[in-house]
Amino acid sequence: MTDATAVAAAASSKDPHVGLAAVAALRALQESLEELQVGNARAQGWSWAQIAGVLQVSKQAVHKKYRRLGY
Amino acid sequence: MFERFTQAARRAVVLAQEDARERRQAQIRTENLLLALYDAPGTPASTAAALLRRAGVERADVAAGVKRLAREEAAPDAEKLALLGIDLDEVRRQAEETFGPGALERTRAGKRRRMFGHIPFDAASKKALELSLREALRLKHSEIGSEHVLLGLLHAEGGARDLLAARGVTLEAMRTAVEELGRGQASG
């Protein structure tokens, strides 16, 4: 069995370990992409309020999360 | 908790962490510790390895078990995301096109995920290390050597115990072997 078919078989097995691990990987990817986009927006002079508006989160949340990264 | 560990036993713990890192595991498992016992250096240091070999368990047997396990449990992110229909290579390519090479890996989340400095012990391997202390106390040995770590691995529930049990190695038999060893020579 190749890795790909093993993965496909695992996906249909309803194994919580597989499904949860996939969600965790997705969350990490989402965090990475968000950080890149927030950094880019700040570099282009966007305010925290503008960024928060498009991200659909509170200004406080986005500021608190990224302020320390120096953006 | 490692103050009373012999140099070889400490080395085994470090090697287990390195092994887990190379396999891109999120946690150190009992199987990593078991495999590391074979690779801990030294003269009487290889006590656990010698005991295992005498019980008919070679390093290759353990390595095969660990390899299988790593494939089952630690699929790389790309494989996990493929389950969700996400092509990580494509996402990475697009991110790098816009933000430069290594863009994803440079982010905080990317670093956390790939460049783990410290990998924690999972519950089973933590328990096994605690039990290795108890096994040493039980035998009235003042130091925790690789042989006590082996007993801890046989005592605690976990993949290492399962792997050894499948090859007929039991806690009771290994305790006896360690006791006999203790009469002759120094612990490793």
Keywords:
heterodimer; A: 71 residues; mainly alpha; 0% strand; B: 188 residues; Double Clp-N motif; 12 helices; 67% helix
Description of the molecule:
The complex is a heterodimer of chains A (71) and B (188). By secondary structure, chain A is mainly α. Helix content of chain A is 75%, strand content 0%. Chain A has 4 helices and no strands. In chain A, helix 3 (48-55) packs across helix 4. The longest helix of chain A is centred in the middle third of the chain and has 28 residues, at 16-43. Chain A is elongated and about 45 Å long. The mean pLDDT of chain A is 83. Chain B is an all-alpha fold. Chain B has a domain at 2-59 and 116-180: Double Clp-N motif. Helix content of chain B is 67%, strand content 0%. The longest helix of chain B has 16 residues, at 7-22. Chain B is elongated and about 65 Å long. Chain B starts with 6 loop residues before the first helix and ends with a helix. The model of chain B has no long low-confidence stretch (mean pLDDT 84). The A-B interface holds A 3, 6-7, 10-11, 17-19, 21-22, 24-26, 28-29, 31-33, 35-36, 40, 69 and B 71, 73, 75, 77, 79-84, 86, 88, 91, 95, 98-99, 103-104, 107-110, 112-113.
